[in-house]
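User: Here's a protein and a ligand (coenzyme A). What would the complex look like?
Assistant: Let me lay out the input and then the predicted complex.
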Amino acid sequence: MEVEEVGVEATFALRAKVLRAGVEGSDVRFPSDEHPQALHLAVSDEHGRAVAVVSAVPAPTERRPGRSAWRLRGMAVEPALQGRGLGAELLDAVVERCRGEGAEVIWADGRDSALGFYRRRGWAVEGEGYDKIGIPHHTVVLDLGVEPGR
Ligand SMILES: CC(C)(COP(=O)(O)OP(=O)(O)OC[C@H]1O[C@@H](n2cnc3c(N)ncnc32)[C@H](O)[C@@H]1OP(=O)(O)O)[C@@H](O)C(=O)NCCC(=O)NCCS
């Protein structure tokens, strides 16, 4: 299955199912979706339904002041397909896209239940934990380094 760029609407069903537990009326639109550079990547099944999604947007982080930073949002894999490498493939793809956009660092609000996933891909877990929509989180950060001469 291939990672492709999609419109934001293609992410909503999976965001709702996986990240909002299918709760009716949950907001699956993020304010960052409105950003003109917002990027949405997905892996789709044979029916064209997204089974893995992630979004990214330029956004600074106080953890790396002055660094060109992108933020990931809405990382989700269809429950029946979790644990088969789809998330890793998508995360690697979005990291490369962000790198291509000039990101020096990428960050996200990582759910505590998913921190091991980010750590496995080389991300650092930083700072104190915090609550978002009733779910414990930590900030996860990936430093991409700066190429020589930049
Ligand atoms: C977290 C999530 C995106 C990972 O996607 P996935 O397709 O299930 O993960 P993969 O199969 O690609 O796993 C890649 C590696 O991370 C590990 N991993 C995956 N999920 C993990 C988790 N929750 N905790 C610890 N390790 C995890 C896998 O064991 C695998 O390790 P390996 O490299 O040794 O084989 C997915 O499980 C998901 O959508 N979870 C629910 C929503 C969520 O938590 N989203 C993230 C919000 S910050």
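Summary: Residues 18-19, 75-77, 82-88, 110-111, 113-114, 116-117, 120 surround coenzyme A (CB under 6 Å).
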